[in-house]
Amino acid sequence: MMTVDLRSDTVTKPTPGMLEAMWSAKVGDDVFGEDETVSELEQKTAAIFGMEAGLFCPSGTMTNQIAIKCFTQPLDELIADQTAHVYRYEGGGIAFNSGASTRLLDGYRGIITAEMIEPEINAENIHYPHTSLVVLENTVNKGGGSCYTLADIKPIAALCEVKGLKLHLDGARVFNALTHTGDKAADYGKYFNGISVCLSKGLGAPVGSVLLADASTIKYARRIRKVLGGGWRQAGFLAAAGIYALDHHVERLKIDHAHATILGEELSKLSWVSHVMPVETNIVLFDTVESAGIVLARLAAQGIKASDTAKHRIRFVTHLDVHADQIEHVVKVLKSLE
Ligand SMILES: *Cc1c(COP(=O)(O)O)cnc(C)c1O
After folding, report:
1. What does the domain layout of the chain look like in residue ranges?
2. What would the pLDDT profile of 175-193 be if each residue is shown by its tens digit?
3. Which residues form the Aromatic amino acid beta-eliminating lyase/threonine aldolase domain (predicted)?
4. Residues 195-219 pLDDT 10s
5. Probe ligand 1: pick from 63, 146, 170, 307, max atoms within 8 Å of CB?
6. Which CATH superfamily is domain 252-336 in?
7. Ligand 1 centroid to 61 CA: how many Å?
């Protein structure tokens, strides 16, 4: 039976070309600053986004948490949408690592605006936590892969500048956003103080994320990474996978988006599906008439793995290891459940 894993774009395995790049990586002890492949990945990623410096970390959770630590002091507050990964899926790390609180906004599919943020910035008052940071997510995971355009980001960056707030981007899927919007990665550096870029989502590297910022922030971030136990030695083998992913797996993201669009269109024709969120990138969120658990069991019986995000909501994520023939198979199975 054909199997298709639509649970997440984290499930990809390294391609033969990527493994080749990993085997042949030049490595050294990165804690001594001697791993040239790690340095190359950090510099390459920074250059792509027009930022000064980078820090290679094991996960997007770590890059986000380090950024929050760099951009806040204990007793500060950050502003984010209520669906934000940094708040919901990083284990309460904002309070634990940074001693900061979080002000949550109710955006549209996770997208917030300068108009929504401005009234939530606390005035200088001994009663109030000091607002110091805004965190955006692009694409928004919980928003079904929804995107900010640069035109959406600019007024937020301008507000942060005026109010003296830092602006961090959780860009776990930033290349998916860029693929959809057509914005240029190099323009992002002007608007964000920090950017997290995941290599292990749609880009298909086995592990790793890069935090981007200015050189002095990255110098401090390197200390924080060490404190968290993230000083990794010959990490160049993993960085090589990241470099390969940046060189070979960005262009192809449009294939994942096309696959997700097909799934979204087919789902919206089915009577057992009550609603499909608009598909912008590689995530399809849809609501089911029956419980999600029942539908997932039927899909699993046909070799299709997916996940539920609410009692009646299922998520499909397309990626590198889902090919056109597998999408055809999924469409056939979806129709057979009518
Ligand atoms: C996956 C993800 C992260 C980072 O997750 P890790 O598993 O820690 O690499 C961060 N933000 C968003 C929106 C994500 O989807």
Report:
1. 16-248, 252-336
2. 999 999 999 999 999 999 9
3. 5-288
4. 999 999 999 999 999 999 999 999 9
5. 170
6. Aspartate Aminotransferase, domain 1 (3.90.1150.10)
7. 6
